[in-house]
Every structure is written in C-alpha cells, then in structure tokens.
Design a protein that fits this description.
By secondary structure, this protein is mainly α.
Length: 66
Amino acid sequence: MDLLMIVLLMAMASVVVVLMIGLGGFAKGGAFNAKYGNKMMQLRLLMQFIAVVLIVLYVYLRGTGN
C-alpha cells in the first residue's frame, strides 16, 4: 500500500468521523447543535472535497502507469 492510498483512507475516515459527530449533535440537539451544527456541516463538506480530490489524483496517477 502506497503513501497516497494511506492518505486517501485517512481522508475518507475523517469524513466519517466528522459526519458521525455532526449527526450525533443533531440527534441530541441542544447547545452543541446550535453552536456547532453549521460548522460541522461546513467541515464535512471540506473533508469530502479533499477526499474526492485525492481519489481523482489516485485514479489519475494509477492510470498513467506510475
């Protein structure tokens, strides 16, 4: 397993972690959700963008034979 694949897996895991924290806060409601709900959504979108860019980079590099 190469370094790019490890970074890619960590990026995907971070998306799952942020999603679970956001869903947990939303389900519980209260002060945490009121304060951090929107920030968690924004962070999840950023993590997803990074993960998708890494996936595209991985596929591109594997397609060129490197």
